[in-house]
Structures are given as C-alpha cells and as structure tokens.
Amino acid sequence: MSGKSTSRIMTIVLPRWPVQRQLLQQPRLRESPVFVCRQNTRGVLSVVSWAWVMPPEKRKGFQPVIQPGFSLSEALAVLTSAYGERASRVARIIYEDSIGDIRVLETLGRWCHRFSPVVAIGPDVIRAIDHGKVKKQSIRSVNSLQIDVSDTARFFGGELPLVRMVVWILAARGIHARAAIADTPVASWAAALCAGQIATKSQQPSGDLCKKVSRSVRGSPCLEKKGPRSSRHGHWLSRQQRWVLVPPGQQQQFLGSMPITSLRLPVDVVDSLAEVGVESIGQLLRLPRVSLQERFGSVISLQISRFLGDASDPLTPLQGSDLLGATHSFEMPILCRDLDFKYFRQLIESLVHQCLRPLAVTNRGVSSLQVRLDTNGVPGSTVLEVGLYKPTAKASHLVDLVMLRFERTHLPREITGVSIEVLSAGTLPCRQQTLFRGPAQSDMSQFEILLNRLTSRLGSGAVVEPRLLSDIQPEASWVAAPVVQVIGTSGSCRSGHLLESKKTQIPKSVVGPSRPTFLLARPRLLEVSSLGVHGLPVRFSWKGQIHVVMRTRGPERIETAWWRGPTVRRDYYIFETNRGGRFWMFRGLQKRAWFLHGTYG
Q1: Of 313, 318, 386, nearest to 351 (Cα)?
Q2: Residue 237 in contact with residue 164, Cβ under 8 Å?
Q3: Mean pLDDT of 61-67
Q4: Strand 527-531 versus strand 537-542 pairing type
Q5: How far, rounded to the nearest angstrom, does the alpha carbon of residue 420 sit from its chain's CA centroid?
Q6: 147 partner at 20 to 30 Å CA-CA among 134, 244, 269, 544?
C-alpha cells in the first residue's frame, strides 16, 4: 500500500463488546449492573468489561470510573460508593467467553458483507492497569471489524452517508458502535476508537461536503449557518459523535492530537514514550525515525509507516467459518426487467440446495441467510436478509421467503451475479417417524410457516410475540418482542451462532396469588357504589352491569422501588360477585380509588 493509494478502510468499533453481547442475549440484564470478569491464576476475578444500561433515575447522567483490569471487589466498591449498597447486591457477574465473543463478531462481520466483500476482524485491544506495587495487568479483547469500502462507498451515496448509516443501523438493532473511514487500517481504527475525543474543528466539513451533509439530513443546518438551535445546543455532528470521516491523505493532520495508545503500540513502549512527554500521535511523528529505530527497534517505525500508508497492511478476510455459501455469476449482465421469474426462482433454489446439503449431514438447518446481488462487478450492491422463527432444512420454504423479499425490494437495473450465504444455523428437532403410511409430516408447523412469511413480507419489527419479564408490576411484566430477531436468529429458540451460548429462559412467576387469565393493558377506573366496613367495595358497576361482591380474597401489596421513577403502591384483591365473575382489582394507596386490572375466565 503506497502513500498515493486510493484505498479506503472503514472500521467499526464496538465498545464494551463482551457486555453488549450478553445484553443482546439476555435483555433483562439491562436493569442491573453487569460485570464480565476473567479469573486469573490466583483465583481473583478481574473486570474485563461492565455496563449498567438502566441506572437509577437520580444518577442517570453519572457514570463511575471502573477500568478493565480492576478486581471485582474494587469494582463493586466503586459501584457502591456511586449508587449505594443495593447496586452491588443486584449486580450480575458473568464469566468471560472470548470464543463466544469472536463467534458473534464473525456473524456480524458476515452481515457486513452488504457493504463490501472484504470484511476482516479488527486487531486486539490491549489495556493495562497499574495497581501500585503490583505488576501491570493486560486485558486483551477483540471488539472491531474492518471493511474495505474503496469501490463500494459510492453505492451508498458516498463515504459520509455510509459511515453514518452503519452506526444508525447497528443502533436500531441494539448495538452501540463507532465507525470511521480513513486511508489505512491503522488510521481508521485510531479514528473510530477516539471518535468521541476528536476536536470539533478537525471534523467540520467544508465546501461541497458541508452542502452534502445538510442535504442528507433534512432540517439540519450547515456548519456555516449559525442559528439559535446550533448556538444553544451545538451542531448535530458534534453531539455524541459516533462516526468520523478522515479526508484522503490527511490522517496526519486530522489525528495528530489523538493519544499514541490508538496506534496499537506495546504497553511498555507507550509507557517509555509517556515518560519523556510524548503522548499524542503528532508528537510522535515529529520525532526522527532513526532515533526511534535505535531506541525501540522497528515496532514504532513500522506502525507509523502503516499509519501513513507507506507500508503494506492488507486485511485478512473472514475465513474458516463452518457456515456455507453459494455463488452464481452470469456470463453477461442481465437486465432485471428482462429476468424470467421462473428461471430466477430455479437459480435461487439451486443455490439454497448447495447451502443446505452440508448442513443436513450434521442435522442442522438454516436460521438466517443473506442474498446478495452483484452489479457491475461490485459484489453486494443489493442485499436481502431472511430470518426464520426456527431453523429449517426445507429448501422450498426458504426459496418462498427469499422470493417474498424480492417482491418488496427495488432491484438494480442489471445484475452480474447472485450470492447466498448462511448467517446462522441451528440444530433441527428430532421427530419420530410414523410406522404406517400417512400424511407427510413437515419439519415445520403451519404456525411457524405463517410467522416466517409474515416476517418476510412485513418486516421483522411488525411481527411480535409477548415475552415474560421478571417484574412485580403487572403491566411491566411482559414485552412485545420481535419473533425473528435482527441478524438472523429467532427470539424464541435463539439457535445459531449469534446467540448460541444460552437459550431464552422464561423467568418464574413472582411470588403471590395466581394471576388472572385476562389482564387489561391498562387498569380501568371503576364506579364503586358502596363500601364496606373495611373500605372494600360491596357493589360496583362494570360494563353497564351492577355486581354485588360475595367473597373477597386479599390483599396483596405491590409496590415498586424508588429507582423505577414514579412510585406504584397498590393493594390487590380478588372479588367474586353474584353473577359468577371473579375480578382482580386494586386500590391505589395514593389516589384512594378502585381500579380493575384483570378477570378470571
């Protein structure tokens, strides 16, 4: 790679990736502080990563400083001093699973093939922490992807729309990411790692770029225009900066103020440079290369050359995956308007069979797959994803889902090839065969087939299912979750490589009397005609009928904690009436009114 090279590399950094993966698998952990820890040779647990997505309301903007490498006892002490003793009692401790982190990262990398055919796992992140007299401990993790977008960025409207779209798409899927595009992998990785630290002056677009930015976001003022909104809150591009675009050939000027730790230098080299006052990339670049070579060997010189583009630093594409793919290239470009629907379906079916044949030997099926259409020799200009409720090895069903997606997709003018890649796979259920001949049993029920077709036609966010949550408040004890999760696997079985370490566990019901069969979405205010000696209703009206209470059971007090926001304090009762009905009602201890929340039968 020479200094005049036109290559452009996009790096996607996933901060606190071990914790993010756990939150993707178990969304209920968002309510508690989560620590991913590693056990050292002496048995002491060291913090690899931690997060608390939903801290108490009173301390929501506050974030205690817990660095990777802290012992678990030190981390809990800091957490207690910041949020109180209860925070340390409800903290969830999870052992590190580095292999699982890399597998999920590889699945995400295969998903990123929609942006470019060249996708690689990023370098190791090395963090060190000093415990006084104790020797420094190093925490190594992989949390980034690098993509070659030299020839594909133009298909997404340019580099700025592309890097912004990547961050937004991942954020919509519950993944916090930072992205950057630069000339070299080292510069791109440094820019993405320090996206929030880059000064506003260095990232202000000018000229034509500023006009493109203002046109791409409707209603967003250009940096050159100063209005009341920009003066009061700052420009939108400088708030919560998660993407960076380094102009071609300007990585030295653009990233000169970044710390030298972003160059992925060894920890001892960084410490030696810090002792002489060299803490930024700009200060390091001003030092003579000969002196650095004599003092530190070729480590710094080689990394500087890679940063500037003077030395070759190729990406190593994803390899070694047991999930398969199939590709078909046409001899000449084919116009989509002249494409025969029957021929195209046969082609898709042939490619799907090639992907399913090796999986059938291991009794596995497809949980999600990706279809890419190549245009003008550029792979993946149009990408379609198909996610399934449960894994299947039925080729005809997969082909039907793919064709449904094509019906609601704007196809390019012409295509040069078609590629299909399996994103995730899961174990198929074993079913006993019938002894006598009878109706053929499908590996999928009609209900599962309907869910898959609705998801392919309407989108994954339009088909949801109720999922139980371990919450004492009745209306907060469930959530409408997508049946088919993003990046492939279903929310019910969670099979495949993305979420394969643990299955969804439905929590046990909270302690208390049996819950009603029908629960109202919101409690309804009741008209109580008369009250008894203890303040309980004797007669009330519901749906135009008068109900006389014959028997009462309760109370069961439900009260939410202070960190949940507005306090909920209720006394629930079960009332049996003269009409044979059983009602689940409560008295609000604040408003002193009676509400109906559910019925039995």
Answers
A1: 386
A2: no
A3: 76
A4: antiparallel
A5: 23
A6: 269
Q: Report yes or no: 601 and 579 within 8 Å, Cβ to Cβ.
A: no
Class of domain 322-431+442-508: alpha beta
**CA angle 325-494-489, nearest 5°?**
40
Per-residue confidence (pLDDT) for residue 547, from 0 to 100? 92
Characterise 459 by phi-psi region: left (phi > 0), alpha (psi -120 to 50), beta (else): left
**Cα–Cα distances in Å, from 286 out to 252, 282, 283, 513?**
11, 6, 5, 73
188-209: b (≥16 Cβ within 10 Å) or e: bbbbbbbbeebeeebbebeeeb
Mean pLDDT, range 346-364, rounded to an integer? 87
pLDDT per position as a tens digit, 170-187: 887 788 899 999 999 999
Confirm if 112 and 106 have CB atoms less than 8 A apart.
Answer: no
Whole-number Cα distances in Å, 590 to 295, 356, 557, 568:
73, 61, 13, 9
d(CA 429, CA 439): 19
**Count of CB atoms situated within 10 Å of the CB of 566:** 7
535-591 pLDDT per residue, tens: 889 999 988 889 999 999 888 888 876 666 677 888 999 999 998 889 999 988 777
Q: Report CA-CA distances (Å) from 332 to 326, 375, 376, 377, 415.
A: 19, 11, 10, 11, 9
What lies within 8 Å, CB to CB, of 598 at 6+ separation is 474, 515, 516, 517, 518, 519, 520, 583, 584
Using CA atoms in the order 537, 542, 545, 549, what is the torsion angle rounded to 10 degrees? -30
What is the rounded average pLDDT of the residues 115-134? 67
Q: How far apart are CA 496 and CA 398, in angstroms?
A: 16
Identify the residue with better confidence: 295 or 62: 295
Output the six-digit token pair for 122.
């990023």
Is residue 435 helix, strand or coil?
coil
Closest by alpha carbon to 452, among 560, 368, 328? 368
Q: How far apart are CA 11 and CA 163, in angstroms?
A: 9
pTM across the whole model: 0.63
Q: What is the pLDDT of residues 463-510, one digit of tens each?
A: 887 777 767 788 777 777 777 764 544 444 333 333 333 333 434 444
Cα–Cα dist 384/401, whole Å? 11
574 phi/psi in degrees, rounded to 5: -110, 120
192 CA to centre of own chain: 17
Q: Which of 383, 397, 323 is nearest to 112 (CA)?
A: 383
CA separation, residue 553 to residues 509, 514, 575, 587 (Å): 19, 11, 7, 13
Spell 107-144 as b/e; 16+ CB within 10 A means b. bbbbbbbbbbbbbbbbeebebbbeeeeeeebebebbbb
Q: What residues contact 360, with CB distance under 8 A and at least 6 apart?
A: 393
- Dihedral of the alpha carbons of 223, 228, 234, 236, in degrees to the nearest 10: -60
Rounded to 5 degrees, what are φ and ψ at 515? -85, 160
What digits encode the pLDDT tens for the residues 280-333?
888 898 888 888 888 888 888 888 988 998 888 888 888 655 567 888 888 888
Q: Is 237 a residue whose pLDDT tops 50?
A: no
**Three-state DSSP class for 317?**
coil
Do 562 and 572 touch, CB atoms closer than 8 A? no
